[in-house]
Design goal:
With 183 residues, the protein is of the alpha/beta class. The chain has six helices and four strands; from the N terminus they run H-E-H-E-H-H-E-H-E-H. A four-stranded parallel β-sheet has the order 2-1-3-4. Helix 2 runs parallel beside helix 6. The relative contact order is 0.17. The N terminus and C terminus are likely disordered.
């Protein structure tokens, strides 16, 4: 075995949890999904997970815009900087680029199905709140045009769901293969 092959084999033995590419999607990509991107990115980094987290919106009304000022304010108040994010529209090819796609509301899921057409892959998509309340298909309420308190509430819901995602990843990472001595 060559030195390069040994090095590759050694690296493979030490890979505990594969890198993940996760996309958070809401309607306009200026309120909820930028918060979700920032929160999960922050938690994954702190947990030592090699994840790429991005966000998108289904309507494209705000393409290229930064997150809503109140989303930025609430994120900053919680130690997360999302000011450099820019809105982009969800595209069907996102199913090829991402391992997991979390949507923040049922209507967004319908839009993703419509946009993706044949590329839609149900095994890659789930409502974010199903992480906390499996199978209940709950939305994260859209705080757009609402008072600041609605942005705080959205943050709390998203934060709790992202914490659950990290817990699941850590539990998966910490499970050790069992060997059987039985023959």
């Amino acid at each position: 075995m060559s030195n390069a092959s040994k090095a590759t084999a050694n690296c493979q033995l030490h890979t505990i949890f594969a890198p993940m590419k996760i996309l958070m999607v809401c309607l306009g990509n200026i309120c909820r999904s930028p918060l979700a991107e920032g929160i999960l990115k922050d938690k994954a980094f702190k947990a030592g997970l090699n994840w790429s987290v991005e966000s998108a919106g289904t309507n494209g009304y705000h393409d290229g815009e930064p997150p809503h000022p109140l989303s930025q304010k609430v994120a900053t108040m919680n130690g997360i900087d999302i000011c450099n994010q820019r809105s982009r529209r969800f595209v069907a090819e996102d199913f090829e680029r991402f391992d997991k796609i979390y949507v923040l509301a049922e209507d967004v899921l319908s839009e993703i199905r419509r946009i993706a057409k044949r590329k839609f892959d149900a095994s890659k998509v789930d409502l974010l709140m199903n992480e906390l309340y499996p199978g209940e298909d709950l939305d994260v309420p859209d705080p757009w045009a609402g008072p600041e308190e609605e942005y705080h509430e959205a943050f709390k819901l998203i934060d709790a769901a992202c914490e659950k995602i990290i817990e699941k990843a850590q539990n998966t990472r910490n499970k050790k293969p069992t060997t059987s001595n039985q023959q």
